[in-house]
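Study this chain:
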Amino acid sequence: MDYQPVVVQRHARPAAAKHSPESRYWRQFKHPVFIKEYAPVTSIQFSPSKPHRYAVTAATRVQIYAPRTQKVTKTISRFKDVARSGNIRPDGKLVVAGDDTGLVQVFDINSRAILRTLDSHKQPVHVTKFCALAPTQVLSCSDDTTVKLWDVPSQTEVVTFHAHTDYVRSGEVSTSNPHLILTGSYDATMRLFDTRTSQCEMIMGGGDTSSAVPVEQVKMFPSGTMALSTAGPILRLWDLVAGGRCLRAFSNHQKTITSLAFDGSAGRLLTGSLDHMVKVYDISSYKVVHTMRYPAPVLCLAISPDETHIAAGMSDGTLSVRRRQPKASEGADPPFALKSGAFETFLGGTLPVIGQGRTKSKIKPKPTGDVDELRIESRRARRLKEYDRLLKGFKYSAALDSVLRKNVPPTTAFSLIQELIHRDGLRSALAGRDDVLLEPVLRLLVKHVTDPRFGEMVSDVSSLVIEMYTPVLGQSPLIDSLFMRLRKKVLAEIRFQKELVKTKGALEMIFASATLTAA
């Protein structure tokens, strides 16, 4: 009779929580690349045009990264103070950035030459952005409480707004109407300006000034009818068509929300916070569908237009870029597009076009024979594992040693011990061991004595080891300490089981009384 290998017992694992399709999609953003800057990363922005390079602003420079290699392709460092809000124009040719001296500069992205210098702000400029519908205009928001719209070719101000009373740290031009500008300020208000009237047309927030929280970020929907704002850990949704009415306010972060970003279709909202979390909201229900954890407080966040990269800048100077490998179907041609030679195929032609050879398939064809042909298949003998070879040779002690190594899972070790018990060979496998050979046995018992999968077997083996090696206790300090650890863990487990029994009894009484009351 052939030798039967040891059957390794498979214990049932607790059912893992099933991830929703939404969560599975966001989990595809993996393999994060961490790039260390020497100052906090305050701004990240992806270029709307391919290849979607992104501008990273940290300290006194703006760096342009290539999304495929995650390497710096251009470095713009012509700033006298800390640079702010590097922003790439939609056509990908120009970069605008402000700094803490109040200067706004426009650069050529390839030559890095300064094309325009806009010098009017008196305090640091934290927001500089190109207008999506009017590429020759630039928005700037400053700590001097002013909001300016610039004409880049003439290097002049188109309009200046003075309505805010504190630092203006966020703002953007509507992507559906180039005349509307949405800004958020530390005066706890969000304001909507119209460049045609040069007036503030709408004020949102404010209220009680004693408990007002500064507005950190604002974001307008692509439709231009709704807007989002963050103040502390609270995210608010505003209806601009209804006169700036707050539709809802919700908070899923523990600390201040510092950044907002839409995905490519504006169907999901990403929020970054000082609590190290990035949360993904479903716009239809505003429920959190996924959460990503980062090693430091998140200061800025951006997602590429093609939804293949998520970049986050942190307060410790770390830039994290998560990548997703797009599926072939996402970039494939439409299913109705006819490829070359399709017309000939419809006509039934099977011959290749003149001048083109046949393409050989990489799959090797299976050999076919006659119907009555007898085919003999050779089966390779299954190779036995090391402990099976030793068991086959009745080397019980060596077989036990082979499963006590660190890289062997405990299920294999205890399956072999069970086999030794069935063979009545456990005592001989444990006999004659010195302190060096007995140590791994005791470490296995100490480690898994409280594991419910192996607890009963550990108790039986421990009893046998104690019976066999009680006469030699006291000769090795290491073995004595392991026996003491085993004793302490057993006593702790007994106390824990007693507490569980008490808790179970108390719960049964509560359930019984609840049932009587309901009856």
In short: Confidence is low (pLDDT under 50) at residues 332-349. The radius of gyration is 35 Å. The longest helix spans residues 477-518. The chain has nine helices and 28 strands.
